[in-house]
Amino acid sequence: MSNASKGFFRFLVVVLPLALLATFWQGGAATPAHAAESSTLRYAASNFGEENMDPTRTSISASLGLVGPLWDWLTEIDATGKLTPGLALSWEPGEDGKSWTFKLRPGVKFHDGSEMSAEDVQFTLMEGFRRPKAKASRVRQFRKGIKDVQVLDSLTVKIVTARPWPTFPYDMANQPGIEGIVLPKAYIKKVGWDGFAQKPVGTGAYKFVKHEVGNFIEFEAMKDHWRASARFDRLRMVLVPEASTRVAMLKTGQVDVAGISLDEVQEVSKAGFKIAEDPQPTSVRIHLYATYYDKAGPVKDVRVRQALNLAVNRQEIVDTLLHGKGKPAAVFPISPISIGFPADLKPYPHDPAKARKLLAEAGYPNGFSIELFALRQSSFPQYKELAEIVAGYWEAIGVKTTIIPTDIGAFRPLYIANPQKPEIVGRAGTFATTSRLNGSDGLRIWWSAKGRIIKMADNVDDIAAAAAGKANIDDIAAEVKKAYKVLHNDYRGVPIADVKGVLWGYGNRVKDIRLRPHRGYIEPSLVTAVPAE
Amino acid sequence: MADAGITLTADTDVAAASDLPGSLRARARRLLIVPLLILVTFGGLGLLADVAAPYPPNQIALRARMLPPFWQEGGRLAHPLGTDRLGRDITSRIIHGARVSIAAGLAAVAVGGVIGTLLGLISGYFGRWIDTLIMRATDAMLSLPIILIALLFAVVFGPSFRNLILVLGLVMWARFARLVRGEVLTWKEREFVALARVAGCSPFRILQRHIFPNIVNPLVVLATLQVGWVIIVEASLSFLGAGIPPPTPSWGAMIADGRSHITTAWWLSFFPGVALVLVVLSINLLGDWLRDFLDPRTRNLT
Amino acid sequence: MQRYIAGRLIQCLVTLLVISLLVFALARLTGNPLDVMMPVDASAELQEEMSRELGLDQPVYVQYGRFVQQLLHADLGTSIRTRKPVAELIGQRLPNTLKLVSFSVAMALLLAFPLGVIAATRKGGLWDVGARTVALFGQSVPTFWAGIVLISIFAVNLDLLPAGRKEGIESYVLPAVTLGLFGFMLAGVVRLLRGSMLDVLDSEYVKFARIKGLAETAVTWKHAFRNALIPVVTFVGFYFGILMAGSVVVETVFAWPGIGRLAFEAVQWRDYPVIQGVVLLVSTIILAANLVVDILYAYIDPRIRYG
Fold first, then answer.
1. What is this structure's pTM?
2. Which of B17, B39, B82 lies closest to B267 in space, CA to CA?
3. How many domains are contained in chain A?
4. Same domain, A303 and A401
5. Facing C140 at nearest CB: one of B14, B156, B228
6. Looking at this predicted complex, what is its ipTM?
7. A219: domain CATH number?
8. Contact between residue B84 and residue B65 where contact means Cβ atoms under 8 Å apart
9. Among A412, B181, B276, C127, who pairs with C122 as Cys (CB 3.0-4.6 Å)?
10. Which domain holds residue A108?
């Protein structure tokens, strides 16, 4: 070896590794809590959502799961769909139906120690969810629908609406969104919205400790919270994207709770773990896009839509793919505890012979070709299998089906900008969402022309609009039922099933888990631990 | 993670070839028959999939889902390797998957190989600014995180068998370009090329008749190894949700779909996994051997 | 020499510029982050507000100009999804990936050294074939599958190691084994080691030393093995960057909070600045490794002017 190469050798073998070690190791001092302290609840989630800690700027349910422990809502909804008190103890409509007066719970404190008052509610509704940068789900509704919020006294607040809003207390509940929370006015004024997003302060049973994007979030229990005192001193939620790893970590005891899908239920319960499920089912369905338009090709014919429906064996899907955890659906997306659920409508039967006949009558004796978008959703990991199964049913009646896996980022531009876009018209796509409690929300978002997803027969649009303007809930329910009857009889889409799809498996350090309806995330203050020996 | 084809630019210390094929002991060489047999078997199965597979690969039977292989309790002889999550016959899907996976490997290598070879020939022969241009693009491609770039391309193009081939070809061409350019540079200075130039041959003819034949050997070696790489990367992309779309039975997709059932229904991912490993390992062994045999100079090229 | 270094540096900068353009364009072609972030029933008005706030309403060349300008000020921009500086996000993740990759390299070398030495000293025989087959086996198994199988054996069934996440030193074992042994690193090192050892073992000088009675172990270790280390270390340098990029699959399987996972999520969210930041970082590391090795070789052997 020459001297030069000897020097080189020495450099590489001795200096480089040392340099590597020195550089990278110092960063390793900060180790997260490894062994679980008995008082820490560790849970593994599949998805953290947006990971934006500012609730006025999140709209995705997984994000809500992430920040949920920080917050309480004005009202709450129990597993049967009944409204119960939250931060508000009572609420009453005004005589003209165009206002609501809320009485707040006394003695509620924000995590920074300050007391919650009516001014905070005013700030939340008038500024928080209406400011230009807000982008939560109801921002538009708030901007248009809320005229004024008046502070009557420190614990009484009156919300004046532009027109009757009978479902307002439901919309302030811990479903379907985040808008029913109360933001800390003084704190936000002091630190600004950016400072608030760095270190959020809420009224929930747990306060914010630490968050690292895509990695973990930690909370600490509030002492003397008005809700039943939390048994776990700390919460640590970690992101584990791979399902089999989540189950493995549950089995090895690395986490106490793990988000699982229907496919893992059997394995997890066989291993001796308990399962908690969201009381509000997930609506699993196939959309037929833009069936209203002439360009829609074969699916504009009601007989073709009927055939596509009759080809599907819903019971078989429920029994197999969905592991019996659901029921065949007649319409979507609405669940039995929602306002306006059309209980009298029955799921379409399975009748492939009739389906073939209908296709022939419609002029497609040899079938036709259709593209089926399989939309990736972390809330419904079986989207691909569902698409394959439905494709199988459709192929069996002669409809040649091409599956196109997609994600929301690629798919949404197709339907959101213009429902007439040639990329989407006349095609089909899987979708799964948890149904909203307010049935007219589902109509507005998924069926009305303004919702811009599926251009519907005009009368449904009218019905949806009518429902939104009704002064009392029973009238809304009646209109929603009417609209769903039209949709059902016209075969506008392929409902598959309502399924208990949001599931958590948990081990014996946890006694019980209750999930907030609709969003399916863990309500930590309701989680209780098995007392330590 | 999977990534071959980086060229050791500075292998001067070890370039001398001493390990000629003749020195391989006969017994070891005879072992090559094993990977060859494996490749021929799967290749043949793939070609004759329509005849060889007992069922159509996409025939769904939900009520017969996740049947174990025949020797386990509950298994049926009609489905010797069991059925998958939708009740499709795994044996049939593996046989059809041979066609899909091997075809994907060959096609992607053809795309990347042709683009890369052409660019490499041009770059090496003409030099000057066009060389600079192509080489900077090649450097850029070679220093990109391959899987991420493939993923980005896959999202841009949308998922289909054809697009996946394009994507993998696109992230692969630089390896061929780098290799070919280097070869052209060494051959270009040879006397016979200079003579051909003096004799008035066009650059195209010189490249085609005098230079290209000399670089076929290293090309074959690289191409062979890349086929295995493509099959592996397709599997990784399936895992990340950007592979060949369903219901096409690619081995990678079958393994990825069965991965969460390793403890409850091991056969879903095990059998396609074994097929994939056997074929890719055979390709790699063959490529390794070809490298010694055809191109001892690049023995240290990895 | 200085001119050579300067030339190589300029080449690298040009390459980086090409990459920045490519990744900028690719990221934007994947879609619009607002389509992922906005509520399903978001109004056009709300979409436009967000678009303006994020500067996505400006012409693409303005956006690119701003991106490059920020880069020149060592600023990678702000994540669209989380509204946190990209540098901060990468800073949190990079050490995790570097540590994982370092461990993986160690694992690969631990197995590669014996395999390479066996292959070289038993050249042409069954041992040689066996050692090379073992090394090639690693690059014939899909990484994710290997990882999941390892978890189910060593974490779930044997209960020896943690199943996932970075929680203490023992949690490095499974991901590092997966990344180090199932990939191209192992086979690459074995091949290099074998090749360069053979060069020495077959040389006249060693033959002469043998005749003079030098023990075979001394030949193997003092001459052949040491000589082989230089290319091996060089290769490891090259491969370090590539492993970093390839770690996305292992990071997903083991819920490892590294930069591969960061970039993958950014792709799902169409979070342009994060995609750009990670790709540029990894590319820079790979380019820098190349550059350092090239310069060192040029230093040793002045005849090399061109890589």
1. 0.88
2. B82
3. 3
4. yes
5. B228
6. 0.88
7. 3.40.190.10
8. yes
9. C127
10. 72-186
